Amino acid sequence: MKYFNSAGIDIGYVVIGMAVVIIILFIMLVINMSKVKNMCARYEKFMEGEDGKSLEKTISDKLDAISVLEDSVKDINGQIKDIVRILEKTYKKTGLVKYDAFEEVGGQLSFALALLTSENDGFILNSMYSSREGCFNYVKEVINGETFVILSAEEQQALNEAKHNNGLKKSIIE
User: Fold this and answer.
1) Residues of the chain with pLDDT under 50
2) What total number of domains does the chain contain?
3) Which pLDDT value is given to residue 172?
4) Could you give the CA distance from residue 164 to residue 174 in angstroms, rounded to a whole number?
5) pTM above 0.70, yes or no
6) What burial class does residue 112 get, using C-beta atoms within 10 Å of its C-beta: 0-12 exposed, 13-18 middle, 19+ buried?
7) Which of 17, 44, 71, 137 has its CA 20 to 30 A from that of 65?
8) Of 28, 49, 70, which residue is a domain's last?
């Protein structure tokens, strides 16, 4: 007390300050006890009906199931990559031109159809319809977007349409 008086501090202020600190500490204690009680309740619910060994077995089973799922995902990704590789060789670019091959036939019953892969390999099928002589079909091979034979105007138009047709979009899996 004499120390407070010699420093010029009123003891009443010290007691009030200590009381405020004690009240704050008490409030913090109540809050912490409430949090611990909630955590204990959640722990009890988690451990309900389980002992340490059965809980360990449950966790081990779940980890094994995750391992099996990871293997399945790897297999599925491999299958998807195989499918994408196969799709790269399929005909997915098309060009179709309908026309009248002969003057006596109307209705555009003749056609030139170009089917190409993503690398522009494929073929052109030209079907020319005649009312007197029947239907004539011609196939011309296409390699890298080019042919080694002369194309009719309709065949060239079908080839150009197919080359500029994007077909399916590239896969994001690669």
Assistant:
1) 171-174
2) 2
3) 43
4) 23
5) no
6) buried
7) 44
8) 49
Cα gap 137→156, rounded to integer Å = 16
Q: DSSP state, 126? A: E
Q: Which H or E element spans position 84?
A: helix 52-87
Domain of residue 124, residue span: 93-164
**How far from each other are the two terminal CA atoms of the chain, in whole angstroms?**
82
Q: What DSSP element (H or E) covers 136?
A: strand 134-142
The answer to whether residues 123 and 166 touch, using CB atoms and an 8 Å cutoff, is no
pLDDT value of residue 1: 66
Please state, in angstroms and as integers, the Cα–Cα distance from residue 136 to each residue in 109, 116, 132, 154, following that order.
Answer: 12, 22, 12, 15
Q: What is residue 55's predicted lDDT score, i.e. its pLDDT?
A: 75
CB 110 within 8 A of CB 98: yes
79 located within any domain: no
Cβ density class 74-101: b for 16+ within 10 Å, e for less = eeeeeeeeeeeeeeeeeebbebebebeb
In a domain, 73, yes or no: no
User: What whole-number distance in Å separates Cα of residue 96 and Cα of residue 102?
Assistant: 18
What does the pLDDT read at residue 56?
A: 78
